[in-house]
Write a structure and sequence with these properties.
41% strand, 121 residues, 3-stranded mixed β-sheet, globular, 5-stranded mixed β-sheet, mainly beta, 2 helices, 10 strands
């Protein structure tokens, strides 16, 4: 596995990056396959929210002009512009009493808003 280093803008400290991109748990992979209807689910990052960035979920067919990453577990593609913001993240599908959702554990994240909808790096 190749490795590289980055520097946190917030703290100025350097850190080691795992260039493995994103890991899907079995639950997340199964959920994404169940909703994908044979298409790829896409993940991107855009500016917005109270902490600076938000995750954008969609289907790759809705963005025909985007050059996506190689498929992860044959179901998820990532916008290459978002890769730096989500390196080494783990995506899980969580089912709780109040509902179900995709949870992203992002080691690049330095903070998030109170509702968990946005993050900063």
């Amino acid at each position: 596995m190749e490795c590289c280093f980055g520097v946190s803008v917030a703290s100025g400290k350097s850190f080691e990056l795992n260039t493995g991109m994103v890991t899907l748990t079995e639950r997340a992979r199964d959920y994404l396959k169940s909703v994908s209807d044979g298409d790829y689910v896409s993940l991107g990052v855009k500016g917005g929210g109270c902490s600076g960035f938000t995750y954008v979920w969609d289907f790759a067919k809705n963005w025909p002009n985007v050059k996506w990453s190689d498929p992860i577990d044959n179901v998820l593609v990532v916008d290459p512009m978002a890769e730096l913001y989500i390196l080494d993240s783990v995506i899980d599908y969580v089912e709780e009493l109040g509902g179900s959702f995709l949870s992203i554990k992002n080691p690049m994240q330095t903070s998030s808003c109170g509702c968990g909808e946005s993050f900063s790096v």
